[in-house]
Amino acid sequence: MVSLFIMDHYFTIEKPSQAEFKDRGSKFIAYAFPVSDAAGFKKRLQELKKEHPKAVHHCFAYRIGTDGNTFRVSDDGEPGGTAGKPILGQLDSRAIINTAVIVVRYFGGTLLGVPGLINAYKTATSLALQLTPIVQKQVETIYSLEFDYTLMNLVMTIIKQFNCSILEQQSQLFCNMKIGIAKNREAEILYSLKEIKGIEFRET
Fold first, then answer.
1. 131 & 55 share domain
2. Do 148 and 163 share a structural domain?
3. DSSP H or E run through 91
4. pTM exceeds 0.85 for this model
5. Exposed/middle/buried for 110, CB within 10 Å: 0-12, 13-18, 19+?
6. How many folded domains does the chain comprise?
7. Region 59-85: what's the mean pLDDT?
8. What is the per-residue DSSP string for 103-123?
């Protein structure tokens, strides 16, 4: 499973989506969204709990990080293994990471049983993921750069040439920048940066 993610690129979603599935009166609303850390996920979960205070369950799964090892599932009171695992199974079947799905359930008065619940959470999740594009991104290593403002043009030329991501930027007389460097081109990018006299950089 983990080997799916140890490569130069990974797959994820960039836009949130929402889908609904109904079975014997129960309503399952799935919310899929990109997430980069557990704190961001918890914030979205709290928002949905406030948005759906009368829902009986808020079940979820997420997988974060390019190694694929950071994940969590929750059945939130449903029988064990009937909600969180089917949700995670849909993420893993698409090999997507940095993605979370929360499924909000309104009970319709009829018990669905274990097979019915597994199908409902799986289907709701699948429908939501079908509504948002899956995109390919490069695995990056994060570096902090420090340099004099007069070197900005040289630094930006390298960043654009190698398609690096700018994560943070503070530009005054002295500049601080946090960038993402593609893992498969890390050596040549670092070599180019070393060619600039007066720049300091380190992996974060």
1. yes
2. yes
3. helix 84-93
4. no
5. exposed
6. 2
7. 95
8. EEEE--SS--HHHHHHHHHHH
